[in-house]
Amino acid sequence: MQSGVTVASMAPGVLALGVGVVLAVAGFVPWVAARYRRRGRMSAGSAILAFSVLVYALALLAYTMLPLPAEPADMCVSGGKAPQTRLFGFLSNIERHGGYHGPASLLNNWAIAQVLLNVVLFIPLGMFVRHARRHRRAAGGLAGAAVAGFLVSLLVECTQVTGGWFVYPCAYRQFDVDDLLVNTFGALCGAFAAPLVAVVSSRRDDPGEVGQPVTAGRRLAGMLSDVLLVALAGGVLSAVVDTVAVAAGGDVRAGGSGTTSYLVALLPAFGQLACIGVTGRTAGEAVVRLRPARMPTAGRAVLRWTLGIGGWSILAQADSMVSLLAYPLAVVTVVSVWTTRGHRGLAYASAGLEVQDVRSAAA
Fold first, then answer.
1. Is the pLDDT of residue 12 over 80?
2. Potential cystine with 308: which of 26, 220, 347, 356 (Cβ 3.0-4.6 Å)?
C-alpha cells in the first residue's frame, strides 16, 4: 500500500467525501425508513455514525485502489510492481531513508510516514467493528476487530497483487506482506478507541410497538424526506419525458419546456396531495412513522398540503421572482417545528391537526 504526505495523497479522501455526500443524500430516505422500523427512533449521532462508515469505506477503497494507471501496457513491460514478501521489511526501509531521529522523522522520513498512515487508515475500521460487537465480551470485540483488519487488508493486498483481480495485466500497486501486520495492528488500536464511537451514537433496544415521542428532529427528517422524494420523482419523470421526446424523433427539450415541464415537475407534489387525502399523511411522514391524530377533512388536507410540501413545490418550480417565495416558506416551516405545540409545524398547526407516532395511534 503506497502512501505519501503530499497534496495529491489527499485527493482520494476528498473524492470519498464528495461521493459519500451524494450517496448519503440518495440513501437518506431508505435509511431513515429502516431506522424507524427497526429502532423506532433516529438520533443525530446515529446519522453521523452511518455517514462516517460510508465515507470511511469509500476512502479505504480510494486510498488503496487509486490512482489507476494511465498507461498500463507501458507499466507492465517491466512486470509491474514486484511484491514485497519479507516480513518486517519496513524496518530496513526506514533505515535506508534516514532512520528515526526524533519526532521530526515522523514527517521527514517517508518510510515512517507510510507505516503510520497505514496504521491510521485502519483505526476507524477497528472502532466500527468493536462498536458493532460492543455487547459481547471485551476479548471477543478486540479479536473481531483484529480479524476484520486482517481480512480487509488481505483483500486489499490480493486486489493489488492481481492487478484489480486481473482487470490489468500486472500489479499496478505493490503487494506488501508488512501491510497485513501494520493494518491489523491499526484495527486493533481502533478497537481500544471504540468507546469514543459510543459517545456519538448509542445502540438502544428495539422499542417494538411502543409509540415514541414526536421530536423536532423526527419532524425535520420527515420534511427532508418529502423534499427528496419529490425532487427524485420529478427528476425521473422529466427524464422519462425527454426520453420519449427523443424516441419520437423530436428535440430533447420538446417534452420538457413551458407548461408541460412545469406540470411534469409538479406531478410528484400532487401525488403527495393524493397521499394526504387517502392516508392522512405525506410520504415523508410515512418514512418516519408519523400521522395526524385524526383523519383530516378534505379542506384541512388541502390546507396542510398548501402550507407544506405542496405550496413549497409550486413556488420552487415557478418562474421569475415568484420562486424566491419558496425560501421564506421553508424557513418559517422549519422554525415552526420548534415554536408550535408538539412540534406540529406550520402546516399541521394551521389545519388544526395534531401529529403523533403511528404506534400511538394504533394503540
1. no
2. 347
**Are 174 and 3 within 8 A, CB to CB?**
no
Cβ proximity of 256 and 242 under 8 Å: yes
pLDDT value at residue 4: 41
- What pLDDT is recorded for position 86? 81
User: Cα–Cα distance between 26 and 23 in angstroms, integer?
Assistant: 5
d(CA 125, CA 189): 10
> Residue-wise over 93-118: b if at least 16 C-beta within 10 A, else e?
bbeeeeeeeeeebeeebebbbbbbbb
Is the pLDDT assigned to residue 13 strictly greater than 50? yes
Distances (CA, A) of 33 to 76, 132, 199, 202: 48, 20, 24, 19
pLDDT at 318: 77
d(CA 152, CA 164): 15
Grid coordinates representing 149 are: 483488519
Condensed to tens digits (0 to 9), the pLDDT of residues 107-118 reads 666 777 788 888
Q: How far is CA 353 from CA 212, 222, 223, 277, 304, in A?
A: 18, 16, 16, 14, 9
Domain boundaries, the chain: 7-200, 216-362
Q: What is the DSSP string of 292-360?
A: ESSPPPHHHHHHHHHTTHHHHHHHHHS-GGGGGGHHHHHHHHHHHHHHSGGG-HHHHHHTT--EEEHHH
- Distant-in-sequence, close-in-space partners of 361: CB < 8 Å, separation ≥ 6: 211, 291, 293
Q: Residues near 123 by Cβ (< 8 Å), separated by ≥ 6?
A: 186, 187, 189, 190, 193
Question: Of the ranges 203-212, 240-249, 263-272, 306-315, which one carries the lowest mean pLDDT score?
Answer: 203-212
Which secondary-structure segment (H or E) carries 215?
none
**Rounded alpha-carbon distances, angstroms, from residue 322 to 73, 106, 306, 313:** 57, 58, 15, 12
